[in-house]
Give the backbone structure.
Amino acid sequence: MTKILYQLESYLVMGILFDVHRNLGGGFSEIVYKDALEYEFKKANIPFEEKKNI
């Protein structure tokens, strides 16, 4: 089995993702989920970039 790097951080982010989806449900546009995730990441003091050019 592969070891997860940054396990605690990964579980925190995944928990936020599942919470947002559980609360909003399906069927919204991408911007609604983006705004909700942005709010939750800020609340949890998780740094992020809205869009990253790669």
Remarks:
- The first helix runs from residue 7 to 24.
- The chain has two helices and no strands.
- The mean pLDDT is 92.
- Helices lie at 7-24, 30-43.
